[in-house]
Here is the input.
Amino acid sequence: MRDAAARHRILIGTAVEPSYLAEPEYAKILSDEFSMLEPENNLKFGQVHPRPDTDPNPYDFSGPDALVAFAQAHKMKMRGHTLVWHNQQPRWVTGGGLTPDQLNKALQSHIKTVVGRYAGKIFAWDVVNEAFNDDGSMRHTVWYDRPGIGFADQGAAYIEQALRWARATDRRAKLFVNDYGAETIGKKSDAIYAMAKDFRKRRVPLDGIGFQLHCDLSFDRPEALDSFKANLQRFADLGLDIHITEMDVRLRNNSPESLDQQAKLYGDVVKICGGQPRCKVIQIWGFTDKHSWLRNGHGLLWDENYQKKPAYDAFLRPLLGK
Ligand code: G3I
Here is the structure.
């Protein structure tokens, strides 16, 4: 997959947990088939920065460092996920003891430390993850307004601040906002679009949009796929890159019929990305159903026994021009 996609200048990525690298099948498929990886959990605030800055040892870089080494050994790019999110945060952040000023300083220092350590190693960052509600309003989070870093009720101003801190630390990293449920045109994608348009106009350092694409077979309708295509186009027209960041296709069962429908949907998405010059990454959220957050959802390209599913061929075919 990685070689076929390279001809289209598309990176094929997957979410990775370092503990699984010890499984030979896991490591082999990862390095043979993928040109990019992203830590599934290791760079989230609670894992990478579990203790406050007053602690002698506030950070734990062991997981991401292992993944950097793997990526470099196999000539893979690495994507960073994520600097600002409402989930998987440490108690010292969520515990309620910090004022907006203290949270502001903590986040700035977090971004400087983590982005700085991986400058030149991580080529793109989900700077802010899942900042919007499905109705397009801002999600209430510890960073936005509970109590926030000082920009409560100022819309996307806290996102702008995080992007500026990231850019000031690594001028070359591509900076993204990433979200789910924003693949098609609707209230959530409209809100992200309005923010992106404003950011581009004011030269706020936003380079692209991550579309997670956790979906099920209901996404395989012409209306949904057409809307997806049109949505990507309007973001591309703003001069933004597009990364599909977390694709999986959840199934109710793994009957041959369901697996074939899943395969078709994967193929359709690869074709849409391949037809959009700004779409530069297609990443799946894990690659084997053995290690998937969906557990029994059969959502990925390899089954629990590391056997290729019909989705694998369907994913590859458009990349081979077939
Ligand atoms: O690390 C602890 C471990 O110490 C403990 O023993 C174990 C017991 O449950 O839990 C471990 O933490 C788990 C963590 O994954 C690491 O494995 C958490 O319980 C579990 O909730 C966590 O789930 C992750 C989830 O994000 C959390 O929201 C999934 O692996 C991860 O795939 C998922 O990824 C998210 C993206 O970041 C953002 N978009 C949606 C996507 C899917 O939910």
Q: What stands out?
A: The chain has a mean pLDDT of 98. The chain has eleven helices and nine strands. Strands lie at 11-16, 36-39, 77-84, 124-129, 174-179, 208-211, 214-216, 241-250, 279-284.
